[in-house]
């Protein structure tokens, strides 16, 4: 199937079978907002649960649940207020808004247009005769502007306090760090995760769940000691990473490198063992929820694309509808976030790192003679005193001579050493405060759900008819099993209803269906990805055996109804397969 028809067929099935649809359609709907229907909400919940199990429970990490409305100060510190922009160009013809960088990328070989200044993007639009994708009018001469993607709100009545809907969940983990480090008993490394809603006022929402204005993210902020060693990469040695390095992209090649996590670090391709570790864990997780590994890669950010604080960043990408889309970013963020908050907030964003043995250290301090500094330097005296204190802590050798020079507000002052009260004392130190570095795997849940659906979607032929089928893994499928009586008579309906109830009580998502012929009932379940269907026929009423039909092969086997809970649990957990029954 071509890329476009794949996504069109999927969107149609998603509406019809209750996976997702445009929100508030009865009021005309607003672009970029989707409602997950019953099947989609269940699939999404299973994907989130599986993420939680993989990245929180099994890793021994913490999880928090922070508010989505956030005061302005937080985003001033994080840099979002100034820098969380996309490039906007509006069509003079039809008034439609577009991502200017995306239009340039579509029309040229440029892959990182978002890093170009707006005037250069305007020139590129003119040079390549780029037109409005909606109405075809030329966009030459239209202004390209930076547009901040955060939704603004007011907290409280009246003029209130300015606030924003969070564009990512990450800031919650950073602003609460002073408390979180206490729960971690200041022992690095430790991870804090959050699954929650993020909001971005996207200029041009499109491709269903891929670019929406409200979406669920699953993020892990992993705090590490930059001086300590990394994780044991043997634990993920069985995962090979399909890497698409920046160098291959620059040459415009499709040169993938398949390497184990350890080799990727040793060859200098992936900066840092923690990044390699999370790439491996991510790949295994994407595979477990049903992303097709033939259509999956890790793309390294190009140098211009990298945030200035980031040492390295890799995006997990999947091919959907002919395009590569970003599902997750794994970034090495250094101490950028915590240092920023330390500057703006009134708290400590460090951890106390204890030495193996207490150390004797020399400490240089000053105690300036203010009675002498005041008359000599006037209003600058207090600033000079604090500059002297900074200097003593930073560079003791500056006090070697008879005079000390400091700079305050661009002015240079020379102070007699005698007046500074400079002193060196010896102290015993048990440890010191360090700012942890952050490695962040950030996932978009909606994009993962959409990719899982797109990769699961298939059409084949059954009994001479084309069937649409979602080949979803049993662990994420919205319904685990459909239970049908052959007909609702001669005890078959009752037996089937009882079986459905037993399976529900055993914790399975069950659909009971007695409407229409059995082939049609199978087809309905195939379309929502139900991996198994159980049919209760005459024999079942007599001897307690039922037929178990597998979705993908459409093969049927007779099994004891009593054994079903065990069989289904094993298959969902991946410890037994249908073939082994
Ligand atoms: N508008 C959106 N709709 C749905 N998911 C999104 C959206 N924006 C980001 N995400 C998801 O959140 C994850 C982390 O966000 P991040 O800030 O790294 O995205 P991004 O680089 O801004 O994405 P893009 O370049 O595609 O806009 C992304 O990998 C993606 O899965």
From TrEMBL:
The keyword Ligase applies. The keyword Cell membrane does not apply. Transmembrane segments: none annotated. SUPFAM superfamilies: Class II aaRS ABD-related (SSF52954), Class II aaRS and biotin synthetases (SSF55681). This is glycine--tRNA ligase. It comes from Halocalculus aciditolerans. Residues 8-474 form the Aminoacyl-transfer RNA synthetases class-II family profile domain. InterPro entries: aa-tRNA-synt_IIb, aa-tRNA-synth_II, aa-tRNA-synth_II/BPL/LPL, Anticodon-bd, Anticodon-bd_dom_sf, Gly-tRNA_synthase/POLG2, GlyRS-like_core, tRNA-synt_gly. Its main location: cytoplasm.
